[in-house]
Amino acid sequence: MKASIVLALALVLGTVGCKPAGKDSTTTTAKVDVAAEESAIRAKEAGWMAAYNKRDAAALAGQYEADAGLAGAGTAIMTDAASRRAFIDGFAADPALKVDFASDRIIVADSGELASSRGHYTMTYTDPTTNKPKTESGSYLTVYRKAADGSWQAAEDMTTPGPAAAAAK
Q1: Distances in whole angstroms, Cα of residue 60 to Cα of each of 57, 116, 154
Q2: What is the pLDDT of residues 123-135, one digit of tens each?
Q3: Among 27, 74, 111, 116, which residue has the fewest nearby CB atoms (within 10 Å)?
Q4: Considering the domain boundaries, does residue 15 fall inside one?
């Protein structure tokens, strides 16, 4: 009898002890609407592309978290607002600037706090060595984090010239 009481107590304690930290029987986790979050990122990227084509440096700089990383071919990674802003100001001032990009795949974390967008781009800009317009194509990867206001902000943003990655099937 004593052994069965000890076994029952061990089972009860083991079950209670396996609950996730910070959770109790009244706590429920809200389900993330992944499709809605993916749509929000697509809308953000449409606005981002429009800002590129308007050469709106302030709107472009506003896409990023304060400590976000921005990197492209031939540039050092920019991880603070001042270096990103200096780069973006110069980029947006280019009269030849034209950008077209689209995501091939968006992944939203089950928690709804992080997401990524991978896609392709074509960009025309003034080549600094020839002072003539140059068109470049390639791929990009952007990692987003959900801000306190519910918007998505770029936490990491990288582009690489070359053939665009194949779209997810």
Answers
A1: 5, 18, 11
A2: 999 998 999 999 9
A3: 74
A4: no
